[in-house]
Amino acid sequence: MPALKVRKERFQGQTHCRQLENVDVLPGVLRRSSLPCRTPTYVGCVVSDTSAAIKNLTEERDTLQRKLDVCGEQHTAVSDRYAAKRADLEAAIKSLTEERDTLQRRLDVCENRLQQGWVLFQNRYYYISSDTKSWHDSKADCVQKGTDLVIINSKEEQVSLRNFLRKFQKRVWIGLKETEGVWKWVDGTQLSKSFWMPGEPNNYEDKDEDCGEIRYYDQEDSWNDEPCDTQHNWICEQAP
């Protein structure tokens, strides 16, 4: 009886071994073993080979993941540089467009003013009247043109304007008027730097000479006070 039991277990073990030989443990990794058909040895081989395959696949996966991470970082860096460059270009386009539009508006204003008789001199526009009016009417004409009578705040402006007016040789009203004994410009600021002719202002012959004019062009101190209803040419001024 014992001998029969041993032969039966050996037969069952051999049958189980053949069954294992026909099983794919890991598709594409381990198919059939060339080991002799002994169950314990065969199973140990399968486990060993399977562990090695898993290790190799894990390392390969980790390597690919690292490469993918590096690729992603490089892609992000390139995208960031592209976005920054695009932002710089868009800002430059916007700035140039605004500058172009500003220059176009200034050109339109310049051409329009030149057609209306204005003269561009040292980055300022001047309008010299061809007829004469009182000081108040002269001021009103400048205001109608969107500006006012000229204001002179420095020696440089005085010299520049005097040189400009020399070719016209006209006595012109400027934006200077006396109010209650105080000389003020048309913008309301009080006179601080003056270029009166010697002895001026003087209310000559007790006249109410409350308005200022440029009378001469061959000397720096060329201002004179005149009665405001006197008929003179006038000069309007406007910045570009």
From TrEMBL:
Keyword Transmembrane helix recorded: no
A Gene Ontology molecular function term of the record: carbohydrate binding
Lineage: superkingdom: Eukaryota
Cited InterPro entries: C-type_lectin-like, C-type_lectin-like/link_sf, C-type_lectin/snaclec_domain, C-type_lectin_CS, CD209-like_CTLD, CTDL_fold
Coiled coil regions, renumbered to chain: 47-113
C-type lectin domain location: 121-237
Keyword annotations of the record: Coiled coil, Disulfide bond, Lectin
Keyword Ubl conjugation: no
Protein name as catalogued: CD209 antigen-like protein C
Provenance organism: Parambassis ranga (Indian glassy fish)
Gene of this entry: LOC114449296
